[in-house]
Every structure is written in structure tokens, then in C-alpha cells.
Fold each of these.
Amino acid sequence: MSTKSASAAGVAPETGTATRVEDAVLQMLEEQGVLTGINLNEVAKAAGVNRTLVYHHFGSRRGLLRSAIKHELRRRQVQTRTPSQPMNLGARVVHALRSLLGGGSSLRLTTLLHLDGSTAPRLMPNAETTLLQLERDRALGLVPDVDDLPALHATYAATVYGYALFREIFARDLGIDVAELDERVMAQVERLYDSTGAAAPPQGK
């Protein structure tokens, strides 16, 4: 889109360029997979822009990937807030999994960043809030009576991240439609974590 046509459409030229580049990254990731990486020359070519413009807007490969994550979450209208109300542990884990599955390529982009040595975005952006809520819900009997809530949080985060990353492979190997497997896995996850909570004896007894 030219500067003149972008202005006529009511879109800032720089915003239109940035969006094209972000869309190109998401499309490349969808077609080529995570392990191919993201080459800025290829991204610029796919977006139909000069490589210099990519650096102008994003500064670096990591900057581009972070921006593409935000773009994907905005596009899909994904809410990343931790639910504030008391919840059974199983329901909390399922909520986290649904949020990840609704985020499209954002998790794969985040994985790329961390494999590249980045520390942002955080895999647990709401960790402090979640731990406080787990402590409250443990007192209410909704969470197992364990003395290591950070490890519990890491355990269920590993469950949801692992499934979200490999769900298509799991579905292929099991011969199950991926959407059907999603629902079956979430049902099992909720039962598993809730039964764990019900079976856990109080500490010190």
C-alpha cells in the first residue's frame, strides 16, 4: 500500500507496514513451523517491504517476534488475565489451556523467542497474582493442601504449554481430530487436577 493510499484509507503508513510484516511472520510460522526460524530478509520479501523498514519498525528479530505476539493476541481478542474468583484447580488449569489454544501462533512465537535466549515475554506473566490466588484457593479447599505452590504452578503450566505446543502431533499419532482431542484432554485435565486435590491429605497429618 502506498503512502497516499494508506492515508486515504485512514491508516497510518507505518502502521500498515508493521501489520503486513507481522502478518508475514505469522504466515511463515504457520507454513514452515517453529524450527525453521524467522529470517528478516525472508520476512521482508513475504511482506513486500524493504528489509530496512523491518529494522526501522522492530529493531531486531526479537523485537519483530514480540510485536507479532501482541498482534496475534489482539487479532484473536485473547484475554491473558488470571481469573480473580475462587476456582477449583482443575477449572483453573482448563482456563489456562483454553486461553493458550485461543492464542493461535502466539505460543510458538514465544517458544521461538525463548529458544533464542530471550527472557521476554514471560511464560508466566501473572505468576505473582496466580500464586496468591492458589494460596487463597488452597485455604478454601479448592487446591491440594501442598506446601510448594510454585512447583504446583510450574507443574500445571508444563501440562498446558506442552499440550498446546504438541496437540496437532498428539492428534495425528492417536488418529483423533484435533478439536475433539482438545475437548477430551480438557475433560481429563480437569478430572485429574480436581481428583488430585480431593485425594491430597492435609500436610502434617
Amino acid sequence: MIERELTVANRLGLHARATARLVQLLSGYDVNATLTAKGREVNAKSIMGVMLLAAGTGTAVTLRIEGADEAAAAEDVCALFERRFDEDS
């Protein structure tokens, strides 16, 4: 299992488009993934679950990934967060 602490840094937070990018990215990996924020844990492969976090800019989230592709999945998700979901140009 891999666990990473991340911060939502894009201007609009985890809104629909950013959440869809995250879920689409994770769907390509054989992993179970969760995001935890504000005391709530959700399935990171579920658009509705991630949207329920209501994670705005600056929100700290914990990513937990477990499975066959966990290292690659964690690296790609961290990169997506670092790139601010490719939204802030």
C-alpha cells in the first residue's frame, strides 16, 4: 500500500472536470484507491465520491492506493495534482 499527502492546488479545486480526469486516470490501473479529506474517505475511482469531498483550493487530501499497479498509479496521480490537473496555464 502507498499513501501520499497531497494538496489541491488548482484554482477551482476538485470540481467536475478535475475529478473526471482523476477518475479516468485511475481507471487504467489495477488498484483500489481512496482519497481522504475533512474526515471523509471516498473511493477515488468514483466521480460522485470524489465530488462529495468538496475539496477546494488548498485542501489537504490523503491518497491511499493498493494493488498490482500501485507505484505507477501513485506516481501518475501525484503528477496530476502537481500539474494542477492541467487547468492553470
Amino acid sequence: MATISPNPTLQDLKITFQESTLVFPSQQTPDQKKSIFLSNIDQILNYNVPTVYFFPANKDFPPEIVSKRLKMALEKVLVTYDFMAGRLQLNQESGRLEIDSCNAAGTGFVVASSEFSLDEIGDLVCPNLGFRQLAVQSLDNLSSVNGNQPLCIIQVTSFKCGGFAIGMSVNHILLDGMSAKTFNENLASQAFDDKPLSLIPFHDRRLLAARSPPLVSFPHPEFFKPDAPAISGPPVFDCKKEELDFKIFKLTPKEINSLKDKAKPSSETISTTAKIPSSLSVVAALMWRCKALSCGVDEHINKERVSTLLNVVDLRSRLNPPLPPSYCGNAVLVAYASEECGNIEKGPFSKLVEMVSEGPKRITDEYAKSVIDWLEINKGLPNGEYMVSSWLRLGFDQVVYPWGKPVHSGPVVNHRKDICWIFPTVDGMINALVSLPPEEMKRFDSHFHKFFNYV
């Protein structure tokens, strides 16, 4: 069990930007669509997700060669992913966002260098504030007015040791975790000389369109309807920017097994058919517990306050018929678990894990369609105190480029204090990236470390 805080001396990686340009498909795309339909799930995810992938020095692929290869690979892959070179537009008649893909406005591509070596940066898992310089979210040479900025920017940053980082800032509307993994694999495949695409993406997002007429057949407390109607389009699932602390909470395989032991029901209620909870369930339950108990003023907990955890769930295999595995877009919903803080504090950990585990089981084919129809009517947003987004099974660290696999990959710190990202490391540990206001982070950290002595 360990906590990693940012290195305060490395908030500036002393980056020099050498190239900032737009990249276009290498050939005209055959399907001249004027706009791309976005599902009700896509609509609310209009914010950037920055990620970074670190690679050691490779004598056969110095950073300047990597930059050239990756830029050419991007040009090729955009023939299939033409919408990623498009821009968002608001359909004034429907009030819905669409992607204008036929304008081929371009994807961003940035080349930069740092005065540091990877060794000087230290632990790459550390939530370094400087890593935000490795995945820029806008191009300075473009105006931000009227949606001119790219929806996707890829950046190659070299370090003085010869190692390098590939940063990606992608608007969540374009891709969810699974389709981002496919895009990364396809981009990597095109960096080779003669490889085909890893997997042909399936682009028809109308598979997740609402029914006509909509039919809401379940209550959906995991969403709420905003009070004020949206003037400039759908509401955005976002939070205000404020001063935050960032920490990585690391759990070893031994500690994960300890959590699973704590999650076992008492001998009086245990069933012979009871399943061992997943690593995600126990980690998510622990993060929920720490977040719920850290929200009080000082150490005072409002025991009657209800805390709700939202757990991101992939829909692809849950629908009937299932979505194509290569579905490109946002095929995710949130499962919820709610409990009073007093019960979260004093109740058995096994109960929390059970609630976290039961939430996804609720999302059947009919339930998912009911959510999509509810969003069609209410234009709502996720309704929870804390959201857990798991990257444990996405396998970003397993993507093979001509220069090898990344030695570390993960999210870049940002202003999302309402989301906890859970991701694996190459040595088998599980990391949780937590971003909270300073005083709340102190309480969160305290509850995290005290829990392992909790009976």
C-alpha cells in the first residue's frame, strides 16, 4: 500500500514545441457523409481526455523517426477514422451535436522536446502536473472560436536520454475506452511498413439511437435532469475547475487479495456458490468508502447523507443483439450504488462490495434502452458523488508499435475531481488516480491508510 504525490519540482518539464500542425487523411474518404449522428450517450461527453504513453530510448527508432512514422500513420488511419479530423457542430433544428466529417478540418499533430531525461522525471506513475505539457489540448496557432480546434491532438515529446512520450488529447465524444484501444492499435499498425489495420472499426452510432417513441420502463436515479434548459446544445458532464491535489493510490496484488478477504461475507451468511469479487469491485468499493467519508467538514461525517457511486459499464455484450466488438463510439453507461455515510463507515466492507458488484447486473438490454430513451426525453446528466472509470482490461500498455510497447501508460491529471481512474501497471499493481481539493484529499488519504487496520 502506497501513496504517490506529485513531484513539486517538476511541474515544468521545460518543453520546446518544434511543430504544431494539422494532419489530414492521406486520401479522399469514399463516404462523403455531411454529418455523423451522435447517440444520447455521446452527446453529454463533450470534454477532452488526455493520456500519455512513455517509451524508452530505442537506437533503431530515435524520436525524430518516431515522429515521422507516427505522422504518416495518422494520415493513413484517418482514411478509416475520417470523423476524427472533423469538427463538432450543433444541429439548430434538433438541438443535437453532430460531427461534420466531410470538411476534413484536420487532426492536431505536435512535436516537442524536453530538457529532462526520463530518469530525471522519476516514477512515471507519479501524477506529475508537468505531464499536462505532454498532451496539449489545443493548438496555439488556431483560434478557439467557432469550433476551430481539433477534436484529437497527438503529440510526440522527446527527452534528452532518447526516450519519448506519445500524448493524446481526445474529445470523449469521439471514443470510449474500448474504441480508443482499437484506435491506438490501428494507429500503431499503420506505423509499420506493411501491416493492415488491426481491427476495422464499426462506425454506425445509430445502433444506440433512442426508440421512437421513447419507452422508459425503469427508474433511473443514476441520471438527473438539469434545471435550466441548454441554450447552446446538450448539457455537458463536467465540473468546475478549482485548486486540486493529485495522488496515486497504489495497491499490490497482496493488498488486492487482502481486500477480497475483507469482502467475504460472514460465515453465517456465506453461500457455497458465492463468487470471489473482482479486483475492480473491491478497489471501487474502497475508493467509494474513502470519498464518502472525506466529504465532511474536518472529521465530522454527516451519517445520514446518502453517497452514490457510479461505475462505468461497457454495453457491447449486454445488448441483444450484442454490439459489434469494434463499435466505434461511446457504448458505456453507469451503474449506481447508494448508501448512507453512517452505514458506509460502520457497516461491513462486504456489503459495499456487494452493492458495487450488483450495480452492473442491473444493466440488461431493456434497461440500457430505457436509459437511452430517458436521455432522449430529459437531456440528463450522470447523478452521483463519485465515478469510477476502470482501464484494467483496456490493455493500452499492450499496444505494440514498431518501437515496442510503452513502459507506462495512463491518464494525465486534470480538473475532474468527480472521477477516479483505475489502471494497471506493468508490474501487476493497480493504481487509482484521485484528484480532490487539498483538505478533502487529506481526509481521503487518512481513510485509505486507516482502512487496512479496519476490522
